[in-house]
Amino acid sequence: MRRSLVLPAIALLQACGLQPLYGGGSSGPVATTLRSVEVSPIPERTGWLLHNKLVDRLGEGGAAPPAYRLDVTLDDNITSFGIRSDQAATRERRTLRARYQLVDLATGTVVLDATAGSDAGIDIVSSEYATVAAEQTAAENLSDVVADQIVARLGAFALHASAR
Q1: pTM above 0.70, yes or no
Q2: 51-88 burial, b if ≥16 CB within 10 A, otherwise e?
Q3: Which of 17, 53, 95, 156 is the most exposed place for a label (fewest CB within 10 A)?
């Protein structure tokens, strides 16, 4: 009974055009394209964090010269809110937004222009050290989320480009 349900389900999935993003593994078209992306330096500490996370996820480098360059502009903002009666803030929201462009190095054309972003809440405590540590941890976590969003979008672009 179970087998008779699984085979039609597989046929339906194939018919709808779904396919694995990383089909072909590390030698597939998406993984190959992602490895051919060079990440431009990103200013500031949070930019450095994001740059390193992108390089780790893309697997940048290799024997072949890069085919694409990823340019990223960050907007890293901390906003205080939750004001007490003595005008001291009790909470902060750290927002990290990235506008990124994928440039084809052969033509100099921007082939992808998109944004990614996330935010995190931070408690302001009596210890300034603890608050700064929480802000830095939020920056690291937000960089992870934004890097994942960017790489997922680049993977979808690579899959679409390989289907042409």
Answers
A1: yes
A2: bebbbebbebeeeeeeebbbbbebebeeeeeeeeeeee
A3: 17
